């Protein structure tokens, strides 16, 4: 819950209510991006926490499935930002090293 509270506070500080509402409306009017993601031709690594408290792991799985040839790395983490746990952070670095 602390991560969600931090995320919510960051959102509140990022934009005034009117700007945030316009941004949300613009995002929803663009659709889900499926048509764009399926056209990506760059090698892509999707790193996602299995217990992400902001965006479900299923969304990460869906994104990786849409991007041709994308690799998905699942992390044992509930954080949405770069992990602060040393073991999880080491897994991220290792995944990026292997990918590149």
Features:
100 residues; mainly alpha; 2 domains; two-stranded parallel ribbon; 5 helices; 54% helix; flat
Outline the structure in words.
- This protein has 100 residues and is mostly helical.
- It has two domains: 1-31, no CATH class; 33-100, no CATH class.
- The chain contains five helices and two strands, in the order αααβαβα.
- The chain has a two-stranded parallel sheet.
- Strand 1 (45-49), helix 4 and strand 2 form a beta-alpha-beta unit.
- The longest helix has 14 residues, at 86-99.
- The model has no long low-confidence stretch (mean pLDDT 88).
Produce the secondary structure layout.
Blueprint: H1 2-14, H2 17-29, H3 34-37, E1 45-49, H4 57-66, E2 71-75, H5 86-99
Parallel strand pairs: 1-2
Estimate nothing, just give the exact number of structural domains.
2
Helix content: 40-55%
pLDDT under 50 segments (min length 5)?
none
Basic shape = flat
Percentage of β-strand residues: 5-15%
Sheet with most strands: 2 strands, parallel
Distance between the termini: 34 Å
Overall pLDDT metric: 88
Radius of gyration from CA coordinates: 16 Å
What structural category arises from helix and sheet content? mainly alpha
Give the beta-strand count. 2
Tally of separate helices? 5
**Quaternary structure:** single chain
Strand order of the largest sheet: 1-2
Order of helices and strands: HHHEHEH
